[in-house]
Structures are given as C-alpha cells and as structure tokens.
Amino acid sequence: MAPWLPIVAGLIGAALGVPLTGIAERMLRIRRRFALPVRATVTASTGLLIALVVWKFGVAWELPAYLYLALITVVLSVVDIAEKRLPNALVYPSMIVLPVLLAFAAVASGAWPALLGALVGGAALFAFYFVLALISPGGIGMGDVKLAAVIGFALGYLGWTPFLVGAFGAFLVGGLVSLVALALRRVTLRSSIPFGPSMLAGAFLGVLLA
Predict the structure, then answer these.
(1) What single string gives the DSSP state of each residue in 13-51?
(2) How far is CA 146 from CA 31, 36, 61, 99, in A?
(3) N or C: which end of the chain has fewer CB within 10 A?
(4) pLDDT reported for residue 210
(5) Distance of CA 69 to CAs 28, 132, 151, Å?
C-alpha cells in the first residue's frame, strides 16, 4: 500500500465530517445546530478514523465494511453524547448493512470462516449486553444492546482475539471516561454517562489490534 493513501483517505474523511455533522443534527429529537468545537471534533475524528481504517486494511475487500463502521461511529457517538440515546434510524439499518458488507468481503476473498465468526460474534455480543441490560437496566440500555450486535459482527469477522479486546475494551474506556468526568466534576456518582461511544472506542481498539 502506498504510504500516502491513508493521508489522502484521512483528508477525505475530514471533509465527510461536515455532512456527518448534519446527519447527526437531523437525528436529534430536539433539533439544533452543534457549536463550532463539536463540528471541529467531528471533522478531526472522522478524518482520523478513516485514515486508521485505510492504514489497517489497505485496499482489501473488508475495507468498505470498516469504513462504514467508522462513519456510523462518529454519528452515533455525537448523538449519544448529546441526548444519551442511540438512534434506531441508524442502528437498525447498520444491523443489516454491516453483515451484508462483510458477507460481500467473505465471498470475494473466500473467507467463509471469518463470515461465520461475524455471525457468531454478533449474536454473542448481543446476548451478553442483553443479559447486562436485564441485570442493570439503568446502566445498559436497549440501544447499547442493539449496537452490540453491530460491533460483534465487525469484531467477530476478525477473530476471537479482536472480539475479546473490543468487547472488554469498551468497559476499560468507559471506566476511564467515568473517572476523568468525576475528577473534573462533570458528573456525580449518581449520574449516567452514555456508553455507546465507549463501546465504539473499544471496538476500534479490537479492530486496530487485530
């Protein structure tokens, strides 16, 4: 892979941050425009994620699936932070689109075991979060449960080590975020912090370390 390809991809990703911000705004229940710092963060985050995905996969059949994951990561994270919810309008389609893209990659490359891993991973992580939601409904919402299936597909395709790193990395990231928020007095011990962004951050830890 040419060394300049991730850089170019990152610049294109940064440009995509503008329409992604607009999509996130339209998915808010209370319509509003995000402030400039939020827009700048979305732009930078999108560029970074796209560059990292291209650096990781190069020009491979799996690239479209993980580019899609990067794009929805930005939108879902912004909405979850703003309103503490993961919009069904994006999560439900992703439960179909991502497996389809992974199936296309598996057919094109003959990676049938990887496709089976994706299906098992999606079901396993969905079941795990569903149990957590039953045990602690105040900590894990059904939006997190549905997102877990999407993340499970992406991680399971890459193997069980990435799956475990991504699954448990979410709780590591979530714990660190909570500690920082408490230290900065942004939240109290009784406050709830959106877990979707931590799940997606953990997922990319698994993807990049695969």
Answers:
(1) HHHHHHHHHHHHHHT-SS--PPPHHHHHHHHHHHHHHHH
(2) 24, 30, 25, 14
(3) N
(4) 76
(5) 20, 23, 8
In three-state secondary structure terms, 187 is coil
Query: Residue 108 has what pLDDT?
Result: 96
Q: How many Cα atoms are found within 13 Å in the side-chain-facing hemisphere of 190?
A: 0
C-alpha distances out from residue 132 to 45, 127, 148, 149, Å: 29, 9, 11, 14
Residues in the chain: 210
pLDDT tens, position by position, 139-189? 899 999 999 999 999 999 999 999 999 999 999 998 898 888 777 667 665
